[in-house]
Amino acid sequence: MSLLSVRDLTVKFAMREQTVTALNGISFDLAKGERLGIVGESGAGKSITGFALMNLLSRPGFIDHGQIMFEGEDVVTMNDRQLRGIRGNRMAMIFQDPMVTLNPVLTIGQQMIETLMAHRKLSREEARQIAIVKLREVYIPSPEERLEQYPHELSGGMRQRIIIAIALLLDPQMIIADEPTTALDVTIQADIMELLLELCQSNQVGLILITHDLGVVSQMTERTLVMYAGRIIESGRTREIINDPQHPYTQGLINALPQQTLPGQRLKQIPGNMPPLTNIPPGCPFNPRCEYATDVCRSRIPEISHFGEVEVACHEVQRLQSNDARREVKA
């Protein structure tokens, strides 16, 4: 049985003028200890997916239909008491900005100790000792001293390490990391990602990494979902997707990486922008930006097709593969 099984998950937002669809029938699985990447531009639905998995959506957002089965239990149908038992305890989330996550008027120790005591029958001293152990696990020096400090007294990298320590406090089976290094410089980003990878591997924790950075995904994850306008448009093993992307959008994301351009040349980019939720084009949502789009692409939503170990939603991918094969034969 999968640790997490998502089926036909649809999330909508009830606006004044209309109800818009933010996630449109997405389905995927996560095995115990597996590392899964979710990539796409801003507005693709990545963060909404993370919030929906924890059932953290608040009005006007709501789960319209679908299942989120976590260890055989449907998160969608859980009441508040059941959700409190699962959030932080069995599944945890690391958010983009640690200064938003951490309470600025409480010390690090207060926040960690109260989290432990809310979920476990522990004395304050027992909770404090566990907090110290977790801070050591994320390589924070002098953890006893850090417990007495406030978030503003720590560096950005230190705060993010503490967020990871808090996420691991209750030994969850799954962590959702939503752009966990956005506000950090490049060297600190690498350290945080290496730490997260090490902790997930050593503790057999399932990881869902939400990011726009395909370079990070290639180093961190085993499987990848590529999202566009609230849909999964390509999924499969990360190595397959990075080395041989099938969907034109995935190809555009990879071509836009700085390492794909020679020094002194302009960076490649996908023309246009992600469509707003209020104005998703008919047919394939990517068709206005796709150089291969045909009349079918503009009128009919593509079904998921299997190409080797990769699943892709594109009308033209079979024709494009045939053209590539013919070019290889001629060569």
UniProtKB/TrEMBL annotation:
<dbReference type="GO" id="GO:0016887">
    <property type="term" value="F:ATP hydrolysis activity"/>
</dbReference>
<dbReference type="GO" id="GO:0015833">
    <property type="term" value="P:peptide transport"/>
</dbReference>
<dbReference type="InterPro" id="IPR013563">
    <property type="entry name" value="Oligopep_ABC_C"/>
</dbReference>
<dbReference type="InterPro" id="IPR017871">
    <property type="entry name" value="ABC_transporter-like_CS"/>
</dbReference>
<keyword id="KW-1003">Cell membrane</keyword>
<dbReference type="InterPro" id="IPR027417">
    <property type="entry name" value="P-loop_NTPase"/>
</dbReference>
<keyword id="KW-0472">Membrane</keyword>
<dbReference type="InterPro" id="IPR003439">
    <property type="entry name" value="ABC_transporter-like_ATP-bd"/>
</dbReference>
<comment type="similarity">
    <text>Belongs to the ABC transporter superfamily.</text>
</comment>
<dbReference type="GO" id="GO:0055085">
    <property type="term" value="P:transmembrane transport"/>
</dbReference>
<keyword id="KW-0547">Nucleotide-binding</keyword>
<dbReference type="GO" id="GO:0005524">
    <property type="term" value="F:ATP binding"/>
</dbReference>
<feature type="domain" description="ABC transporter">
    <location>
        <begin position="6"/>
        <end position="254"/>
    </location>
</feature>
<dbReference type="Pfam" id="PF00005">
    <property type="entry name" value="ABC_tran"/>
</dbReference>
<dbReference type="InterPro" id="IPR050388">
    <property type="entry name" value="ABC_Ni/Peptide_Import"/>
</dbReference>
<protein>
    <submittedName>
        <fullName>Oligopeptide transport ATP-binding protein OppD</fullName>
    </submittedName>
</protein>
<keyword id="KW-0813">Transport</keyword>
<dbReference type="InterPro" id="IPR003593">
    <property type="entry name" value="AAA+_ATPase"/>
</dbReference>
<keyword id="KW-0067">ATP-binding</keyword>
<dbReference type="Pfam" id="PF08352">
    <property type="entry name" value="oligo_HPY"/>
</dbReference>
<dbReference type="GO" id="GO:0005886">
    <property type="term" value="C:plasma membrane"/>
</dbReference>
